[in-house]
Predict the 3D structure of the following.
Amino acid sequence: MGQAVETVLGRWSDGPGPLHRKLSDALRRAVERGHLASGERLPSERDLAARLAVSRSTVVAAYDTLRQERLVESRQGSGTRIRPRPAGGTPRTGFELSPVYRSLIDGPGELISLACAIFPAHPLVAEAVATVIDEDGAKLLTHNGYVPAGLPALREALADVLTDDGVPTTPDQVLVTTGAQQAVSLATQLLVRPGDDVVVESPSHSGTLDAFRARGARLVAVPVDDDGVDTRAVADIVTARPPAALYLMSTFHNPTGAMLSARRRREIAELVAEHGIPLIEDNALEGAPLHEERLPPIAAFAPPDAPALTAGSFSKAAWGGLRVGWMRGPAPMINRLAELKAMNDLGSPLLDQAIATRLAPQLARLRADHMVYLRRNLEIVTSRLRELLPSWEWREPRGGPSLWIRLPVGTAAAYAQVALRYGVEVIPGDVMSPHSEHGSYLRMPFAEEPPVLEETMRRLAQAWEAYSPTEEPSRPAAPVVV
Ligand SMILES: Cc1ncc(COP(=O)(O)O)c(C=O)c1O
């Protein structure tokens, strides 16, 4: 099943020019990129107008343009379809990338993008770069450069960090990866076959849901509350029909900001050990705390040989551009993941790993600095929300760089269309959900510097004033019908 057409169109209304032109351009692009296939039926003019929060005449004009270009055809009774195209176009892929990572590929353009929570680099990163060049450069350049499992010094440094965090770890239990994203993708390659069940939280991190979907997994959703995932729901699923893997974000949950309680960590650890169900714990957001309280990863509550993998990253604590993360687990599983890492890219770049090696002992300080930064930002955003958007609801997150906001009326997908025209890219909750739930929620990152946050809030408030829920889609987030 394809994605909702408004998702496929992405930030179609960005930039100058009449709306109908931008819409026909975006539809053409979607066909060229293989997001809309030959024969695929487009929504009716009325339906698309409602979903994109534009007038019907805008859609009529866009479809007219595409008909003149012979890209679409309309027939009485069967609606408007994409015409068969000559060979040579982009083949339609088996999965659709969610707009969160799509936005990184396209770049922000003129918009303020709330697609990802991206921090400025911590000043210690620049210091570590200089030290690596001055002190490690000559030695590094004598290395052959290929270390698929990771630079030994970095594996050692990370093993020390993890041991200090309460989970005794040896270097052969650590694989260095290109961010937490690759750690989770490699675990997916190792553990999941097409058609397998994977238990995920709802909502969840769309970047990982994309990886599972691309692998052909069947997503089994479990709810999340303030204490993290509902462990009873996980236990019921695991005993009824054991999945290929559990994917959980215990510290912290993206997008709700929940932190899995110690009791629930123990319960998950017991399930993993007792049933041998592989766990992929994704702690990519650990570097973005809002409180001092810390808990060890779930693996700390399980026997050492239990199939519990824990992903971590320098992205939030230090800098996303470093692209260094890790996976911790039993040595035999880490060894298998290293084989996959070798096949994927033969190892992460040596210089980046050397910089991370310098930063690893400072992770606690980096986290503490981010806590101060994020708390100030949270204060700014929540006070502006109370002032400008008092009907929006949210709960105080335990950690992580985003608010999970509930709109009082309408759908976040339709509001996102209006927000685009006020210069903000908003990610609606259904994109963050395994089965397009949470249509009345949106995720609002607050990792940017205060002037950007202030401007974002101003534009969101203007867009909210302009959004009238009569513009609501008749069938919210319905997929393109093939
Ligand atoms: C839960 C989660 N996993 C993985 C990632 C990707 O992280 P990285 O930059 O380390 O690849 C993110 C990014 O925000 C995330 O929130």
Q: What stands out?
A: Residues 289 and 357 are 22 Å apart (CA to CA).
